[in-house]
């Protein structure tokens, strides 16, 4: 799964051999952490209250703050810091603790996956939207190279894009 992000597609088929590619260090490190973490590790992370700022939790490693931060600010390219009304971290950590076993056999590679041969597999490709690059400022995606990789691959690819993206002929699903 190039540009792994939350890897929701891979989690759906977790029992398969999963390789995640991610260039953004914080996302890469969170997946590296989750692959080695135990249920107990996740449950030992603190419960949070409205208004808490995770930067004040000095006992947490940066990667633990990033994991929590991505739950505080879902769908965002950067982890959040302050608990808001929409935050469900206390429930999320229980869900994550019960699912962390699913990723023990996964591999995470700090790379965009473009240099690697795409073997017989399904590829779920969810790069930063080319129109909204300002929201995800780590690394530059060569959309032409990515487009050629997808078009020339004999593999099955599921590709996400914004309705304004032009690097592939995206068609709205609805």
Strand content is: 5-15%
Low-confidence stretches: none
Radius of gyration: 17 Å
Characterize the quaternary organization of these chains: single chain
Give the spatial strand order of the biggest sheet: 1-2
Helix share bin? 25-40%
N- to C-terminal separation?
Answer: 24 Å
Overall mean pLDDT? 85
Description:
Helix content is 31%, strand content 8%. It has helices at 8-12, 25-36, 39-43, 62-72, 89-99, 143-152, and strands spanning 19-21, 107-109, 122-125, 156-159. A two-stranded parallel ribbon has the order 1-2. Strand 3, helix 6 (143-152) and strand 4 (156-159) form a beta-alpha-beta unit. Helix 2 crosses helix 4 (62-72). The longest helix is centred in the N-terminal third of the chain and has 12 residues, at 25-36. The protein is globular, with a radius of gyration of 17 Å. It starts with 7 loop residues before the first helix and ends in a 15-residue tail after the last strand.
Topology diagram in text:
Blueprint: H1 8-12, E1 19-21, H2 25-36, H3 39-43, H4 62-72, H5 89-99, E2 107-109, E3 122-125, H6 143-152, E4 156-159
Parallel strand pairs: 1-2, 3-4
Summarize the structure.
The protein has 174 residues and is α/β, with parallel strands linked by helices.
């Amino acid at each position: 799964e190039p540009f792994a992000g939350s890897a929701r597609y891979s989690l759906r088929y977790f029992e398969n051999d999963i390789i995640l590619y991610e260039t953004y260090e914080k996302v890469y490190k969170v997946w590296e952490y989750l692959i080695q973490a135990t249920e107990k590790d996740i449950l030992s992370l603190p419960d949070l209250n409205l208004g808490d700022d995770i930067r004040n939790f000095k006992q947490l490693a940066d990667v633990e703050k990033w994991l929590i931060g991505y739950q505080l600010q879902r769908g965002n390219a950067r982890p959040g810091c302050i608990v808001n009304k929409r935050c469900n971290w206390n429930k999320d950590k229980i869900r994550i603790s019960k699912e962390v076993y699913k990723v023990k056999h996964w591999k995470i590679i700090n790379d965009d996956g473009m240099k690697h041969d795409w073997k017989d597999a399904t590829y779920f490709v969810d790069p930063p939207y080319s129109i909204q690059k300002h929201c995800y400022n780590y690394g530059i995606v060569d959309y032409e190279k990515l487009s050629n990789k997808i078009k020339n691959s004999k593999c099955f690819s599921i590709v996400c894009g914004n309705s304004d993206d032009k690097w592939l002929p995206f068609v709205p699903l609805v």
